[in-house]
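Supplementary notes for students who missed Thursday's class. We covered one full example, reproduced here. Read the sequence, then the structure, then the short commentary at the end.
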Amino acid sequence: MPHCAFCEQPIEVSVAHEREGKEYCCAGCATADQMLHGQSELGPNPSTLDRYKHLVVAEEAEGLVRYHGNHALWRVSLPDIHCTSCLIVLERMEEWLPGILEVRVDFSAKMASITFNPEKLSIALLAAWLDFIGYPPSLVPPAIRKTQAISTLGVAGFAMGNAMMSAFPEYFGLNEAAHHGLLLLFRYSTAVFATLSLAVAGKQYIVNAWKAIRVQQWSLDIPIAMGMMALWGWSVYALVRGEHGYFDSLSGLIFFLLLGKMLQERTYAAFSFERTVHDFLPLSVFSLERGSFIRIGQLFPGETITVPKNNVVPVNATARGVISIDYSFISGESEPVEVLPGQRVYMGGTVLSDGATFEVEETP
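Structure (token representation):
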């Protein structure tokens, strides 16, 4: 069995991509390998670059956090992540794309945390490169994605409930000879609701399965999509023959798949074992206006606080003087940053100066 020249993963079905005599499992691996060895001048085209130009004004709402001039972190959703080869291509970006410092991928959440140098690589160009290698970033805010997931689940639940109700005459053995017209109405109603569920709620499984097939990679979405389409196709055939079919079962399958997926995501989120900056923040900080130590959650924007030397800044704040800040805990950059009066200081930085005072911008 041949192996990919970049990620060294086996190419299961056939050679997905072949360039300059080398075999690759996907276009991303081919591009990454050519860039790494300087064999290609490939890159995103002007239309792709234009699509992401608006990201020059990206802020924390889009997942971008700038720690200082040459260090930034972008946490972005990449829905097209589907296999281990994707992880290897993305986590080795620093080897072939100048300006990338580190990439960490959360496979289950299909998210990537990309640390990069904005002086060498703009976020717009970074997004265009991700798109070019086959992982277009999803710029939909998390709150909207959550709303969309709940809405999709609602549509699936609505379709399942109505399809089940429309199938009641079949469950109770309604006499077909005496109520042929009524049975026909209920059967077609069940078909309409099941088709709505498949088109709206089950679409994501079919799309993901098609993407996996195109790159000749196995995905769990493939058998799920095949089962959905087989169930729908057989039910249509049965409906044409004057039989009931399995439209109610199809709508139930889609609803419980989505419900299980949502519960799984919530469980993963609740049982995260990764420690964050919040685990290392002090319980309280000294407020100059109040003349006493105040719990972090009770601070107000505009309040002046003091942070002793070698302590962690507990909030996003504005510096009141020239202060040396160490961001190595949250960014990995060991070189201290000199912050001037009026400049922003991010939560999690360690104060290296004596008598540091800050004006609170926002609390955690």
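Commentary. Residues 278-362 form a domain with the Calcium-transporting ATPase, cytoplasmic transduction domain A fold (CATH 2.70.150.10). The mean pLDDT is 80. If anything here is unclear, bring it to office hours.
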